[in-house]
Amino acid sequence: MTKLLTELAAIVGDAHLITDPADQAPYLRDWRGRYEGRSQAIVRPANTEEVAAVVRLCVAHGVPLVPQGGNTSLCGAATPDESGSAVVISLQRLNRIRYLDFDNDTLTVEAGCTLAEVQATAAAADRLFPLSLASEGTCRIGGNLSTNAGGVHVLRYGNARDLVLGLEVVLPDGLIWHGLRALRKDNTGYDLKQLFLGAEGTLGIITAAVLKLSPRPRSLCTAWLAVPNPEAAVALLRQFRSECGERLSAFELMSQPTLALVLRHIPGAQCPLSEVPPWSVLIELGDTRADAGLDEIAEAILAPAIESGLVLDAAIARSEAQRVALWALRENASEAQRHEGVSVKHDVSVPVSRIPEFLHRADAALLAAFPGLRIVAFGHVGDGNLHYNCSKPDADANAALIGERGDVNRIVHDLVHELGGSISAEHGLGQLKRDEIRRYKSELEMDLMQRIKSAFDPKCLMNPGKVL
């Protein structure tokens, strides 16, 4: 064992220093299977002080560091490179709920808590932590914050960065920033926490956070709607927002090919309508009153929408089991795609008003360039975030398409940029879009980002090769 590994074992204990290649394997491959690297070791510290000690030791040896939570990154942000020089710092043992402040509506948690654990702790206190993702059972809150995760309730509650009041961070020199403030008003200079939220572990390692809680909804209305086209979906969103205001917490869109894949590959999945529509919308209303009459409110909006043809058909969940089944159709969209091989994936955002234009123009351009293309489109229409994925049903043709992913990306990303959008809405840049982003950000923006990186991490040892 090298001197570095011996000293790391002294910090975290022999049982939490993983050097055997077989035991390391789950930490070295990303969720999508696109990236696979090597490392000197996987280190599993138990607390913030151990994280800081590991960072100081690795910096002293000039060793790169790769922070990792639940290893559910979709852009390779938590995967080391192939050089084998890095040490992966797994935060899974930092999994303590530190403090619940009921009157302040805040929850202080460590970075290794799963999102589901955070949600459950809030629910046990009759509160809501609204961040919700399909991977919530395995993703960790530190990773959610480091990537500024979005999810299905951004429409009402905002992205991950909107749900944080304070952070504890181990900096690239091993110092600990104790920024766990639980204040909603703190006008004393730069909002430092925002530098680390969405930085994907390149400026420091988030070890704990103070999270904002909300009142728990006591009544919900969840409905699956058929609409003829994206224009109708955007018009319907406008109506629901006008009539329901903050009661509208989710507004999701799925194309016919997307729903067809879910029905084909996810056991127990059933279409809630008489036939698979050209486009589906999943909406959810929530209210803190148990007798809010949300079903009646939704029906009052839907009745004229059906008469006008804005909505073709509708099914409202009448039980919790039906509600869960509707959400399962949406949440399993990504999993269903995995059953049919690799696709060229895009996580993009455009202004809500331009979603129909993006979908029509992107479809036309791609089908002209790649005949026979299958386009799987779904996402969070309420905040303009679409997951727009391309593949071909035939395995050989699809392999050829993957080889031309750069051309596919160029068509999609150039259009997104033209429409005033972003090529990464909620998944981050990681390794996947690290070089691509330079085409769409100005030289000044890139220079400012590089200056920040250099100021925090002059040796470039903190998650190198990600974002920049």
UniProtKB/TrEMBL annotation:
Keywords noted in UniProt? FAD, Flavoprotein
List, alphabetically, the Gene3D superfamilies matched: 3.30.465.10, 3.30.70.2190, 3.30.70.2740, Uridine Diphospho-n-acetylenolpyruvylglucosamine Reductase, domain 2, Vanillyl-alcohol Oxidase, Chain A, domain 4
Q: Out of the domains of life, which is the source?
A: Bacteria
The FAD-binding PCMH-type domain covers which part of the protein? 35-216
Similarity comment: family membership: Belongs to the FAD-binding oxidoreductase/transferase type 4 family.
Record protein name field: FAD-binding oxidoreductase
Organism ancestry:
Bacteria, Pseudomonadati, Pseudomonadota, Betaproteobacteria, Rhodocyclales
